[in-house]
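Data availability (excerpt). All sequences and predicted token strings are deposited with the supplementary files. A representative entry, sphinganine-1-phosphate aldolase, is shown inline so that the format can be inspected without opening the archive.
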Amino acid sequence: MESSILPTMIRLRASANSFLSQFEPLAIVVVPIVSFLIARVLQSFIQVIQERGLKATIIGFFMTLVKLVPGVKKHIDAEKQKIVDKLQSSGKSLRGDWKTELPNTGLGTRVLEQMKDFKQKDPAWQGKCSGTVYIGGNESEGHFSLINEACSMFAHTNPLHLDVFKSVVRFEAEVVAMTGALFGSKEKASGGEICGNMTSGGTESILLAVKSSRDYMRAKKNITCPEMIIPVSAHSAYDKACQYFKIKLWRVPVNKEFQADVKAIKKYINKNTIMIVGSAPGFPHGIIDPIEELGELAFSYGICLHVDLCLGGFVLPFARKLGYPIPPFDFTVQGVTSISADVHKYGLAPKGTSIVLYRNHEIRKVTSLLITEWSGGLYVSPTIAGSRPGSLVAGAWAAMLSLGQEGYLEHTREIMEASKRIQKGVKEIPELFIVGRPDMTIVAFASNIIDIFEVNDILSSKGWHLNPLQRPNR
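Structure token line:
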């Protein structure tokens, strides 16, 4: 029987080979294409996992599948619209009797009485707000009075007009120079060309640093499709910058210490990369990224490195002098090309004052706008804003000079000690734990036992306004 089956199998195999051979030319073309497409899909899937994490990727994939079920997407969209409608209606109720047009007769000085009445209805924020106001304690009242007087004195000035308001122009130059000195301008390693401008806040400083990096790298490497790599802990201002300036953004997960993962960032660097970012410290957890390692990486690839010192700019230099183990974070690190630092945070200046600094004039000059053909004459602007409030520049100058080195050292000593007391208190609560190892004054805490958002709601009801974090929830 076996002898009769064998010839049959041979004939069938021959027939099959003959049939398949007809498709061989097609297979030569199709198989590589299919293989390429499968490889790209797998690469994209792996990339998404690297960006968002395995858990978030699986949840996202599951939600996509759920939305394919008839009626589900429509229901989700309807629920979203309900939330939007609720927010809009609550906004209208909040406005209540808000004025919508000018009064026929002006109130004169009586307007101050109304302002005082409105101010009294604001919650008491002194010492109870996180990430909002950075001065409190017994000395705050006198410092506020000094700043208010300085701002009032220069309330109608504008540093855009260099020839008219020479005083505030000088104030800005000196604030920039004094801040640059804190970040290494006097040290040989920095190159000694540090320059910059005052801005309206950390977001504008970051926007300018990103734009400068984009334009600088376009001139240096002819990069026309720019990309930027940042850790997930970096501020949302970078998302805004990328939307404004048409830059592709890669957000990379942090390491187990909640720091920027240098190896992960390196994997994303390509021919279109213009810059990477580090924070000192990051806003969510108060942890300093490995700036030295990021500097080495940026320098080796010839790309820009921006250090976000908006929180730490007026603490870290003084904390180091007080003996705290602060790692290198400024222009003394090779590879750092720009820095942002807020004077209106721990610099104790009026709200609306920040600084963007560049390693040299070559990087800075691509930011300044120079219009020579306008019928209104020559127009030069080094920041996003044209006209700027000279009062805030004067207020920052007054704050820095009134406090001096000794004032900032004392202030830093107090807030660093307060941070240690907070950490000690959190550790004494069994249900809570501290996220990572805070380097400065920001302390993030969480729980694996209780709903941390519910804890935040209870604190808010008692007048404590803290910043809730997410991914992971903190």
